[in-house]
Amino acid sequence: MEKIKTFDELTIRDNFLFQHVMRNERLCTHLIEKILNIKVRSLHYLDFEKTIDLRLDGKSIRLDVYVEDEEGRVYDIEMQCSNSPRNDLAKRSRFYQSMIDGELLDNGKPYEELNPSYVIFICTFDSFHKGLPIYTFTHCCKEDYKVQLKDEETRMFLNSKGSENATDPDIAAFLRYVDGKAAKGNFVERLDQEVHFVKSIDKVRREYMILSDEIRRRQREAAEEGMKKGLEQGLEQGLEQGRLEGKREGSENERRQLLMNLLDSGMQAEQIAAGTKVPVEYVRKLAEEMKN
Questions:
Q1: Average pLDDT score over residue span 33-38
Q2: Number of other CB atoms surrounding residue 184 within 10 Å
Q3: What is the reported pLDDT for 70?
């Protein structure tokens, strides 16, 4: 079960805190300008921690920072601290991009007027193992790289381990800060001040506590459901093995031994009964016999 950080342990790398810090429009604007080397006059927050769900039977995504500028460009900025063993971040960025486009189309925009969009992952690892501070991907012709598709779709992956190769001082400092280094430089120092300011707000602290409690509740429910299924499967396999071998008495002894082992582990009779579909009275009686 994944350990949940306390509120005081949170850093810019944690999605919850990153989302709140990026609600500072000046900081968010400056970060976008530096990453993309463009000028942004103003930002409009489409939603905080935007949830996009296009199909009732399909997947939904929860976006960390989802903003649009005055020019109509849409930005999704994600903090990413773990890379799956399958290294599927590229496919995930593709899915995010398609969901954002679907959301824009659902709002009545014809496809020829789709907004220029940027999906930006800020990673605490090097996704492509080339040491670059930023990896930028746009569509171009395989036969002639000078021929651009010009679909106005861009996906970017920042690498906190590549700060030494960043030419922009603010980007280099930002990557070092994400990587856990001290805040140095005007922009990152302002970012760090915002982190401390957000963490001083009681309302934000309470919000995180509520969120943490909900995550723990879901973890408990998932663990209990997994344990129940495991017990049911284990007991059924034991009984089936006994039936196949024609050892009815042996299978009963196996069931009894299994229940005794579960009681020895400290589980309550009610939990064992629910997980194994054995009458709770039988489990309690067995527990009493074990005491004597």
A1: 96
A2: 14
A3: 93
Tokens of 273: 């009964």
| 3 state DSSP class of 106 | helix
> Which pTM value belongs to this model?
0.72
DSSP 149-216: ----EEEEEEEGGGGGG-SSHHHHHHHHHHTT----SHHHHHHHHHHHHHHT-HHHHHHHHHHHHHHH
CA-to-CA distance for 221 and 214, rounded, in angstroms? Answer: 11
For the chain, give the number of residues.
Answer: 292
DSSP state of 99: H
Candidates 178, 209, 207, 212; CA nearest to 195 is 178
DSSP H/E element including 67: strand 65-69
* Nearby residues of 179 by Cβ (< 8 Å), 6 or more positions away: 124, 160, 161, 163
Q: How would you label 23-59 residue by residue, b for 16+ Cβ within 10 Å and e otherwise?
A: ebeebbbbbbebbbeeebeebeebeeebebeeeeeee
